[in-house]
């Protein structure tokens, strides 16, 4: 049975969010590595799971987007800002901020975590973010009663050069590492890490290409449409399904196998 179109309406309670897939060539060759974080086991959403950095869109993200020419209520612009800001807060990696010196990153990160607004920082420094460097490739909004509902926009970006050690923001995460999409999927299959359904589907999609350039080209061939997984009975077994025209090599999985690790 082929998959049908999923519901396209965003639930009223959905929290706008953004996530960032940061890719870099490995020193020994092979597919690009991706920056991943392991969520704290105390978190309400995806506790203990390995995910891409990101988080909810804050009001100031709209202000920053407007500073860069987006309309004041443009969610797309705010999502790009949120993806960069959350990554800096969570990992210490300043993506899309080419004028920020490596030795300044730690202080800027702490200021953001302490409540200083990114819009004020950029204004005082007379600097801009490279929002155009982000490649949009997906938008997911799983809607299940047992978890918070996030309307998440996904972006890919090439990793910037950096000389400082990356560390997790300990309130939310316990571990940070680089690994290719195929290696991360293999770790999940062995039970070494846990990944949730959207992360697995996107890792499978990323694993189809070997580099950021190749994945960017791949992303350009498919529309960015809202993905709201649905449950469908197939051969007497409940499957969680997604649309089959958005570039994903796997579009369904038995419901009892969704969480790995």
Structure description:
This protein is of the alpha+beta class. It has a single domain, classed as Nucleoside Triphosphate Pyrophosphohydrolase (Alpha-Beta Complex). The protein has seven helices and eleven strands. Strands 1, 2, 3, 4, 5, 6, 7 and 8 form an eight-stranded mixed sheet that branches. A three-stranded antiparallel sheet has the order 9-10-11, with no helix packed on it. A hairpin with an 8-residue loop joins strand 1 and strand 2. The two termini are 28 Å apart.
Distance between the termini: 28 Å
Determine the strand fraction and express it as a percent band: 15-25%
Structural class: alpha+beta
Number of strands: 11
For the CA atoms, what is the radius of gyration?
A: 18 Å
Q: How is the CATH topology named?
A: Nucleoside Triphosphate Pyrophosphohydrolase
Oligomer: single chain
* CATH homologous superfamily grouping: Nucleoside Triphosphate Pyrophosphohydrolase
Low-confidence stretches: 1-7
Question: Percent range for helical residues?
Answer: 25-40%
Number of helices: 7
Largest sheet features: 8 strands, mixed
Mean pLDDT: 89
Number of domains: 1
Global geometry: globular
Series of H and E elements: EEEEHHHHEEEHHHEEEE
CATH architecture: Alpha-Beta Complex
Q: Look at the structure and give the CATH class.
A: Alpha Beta
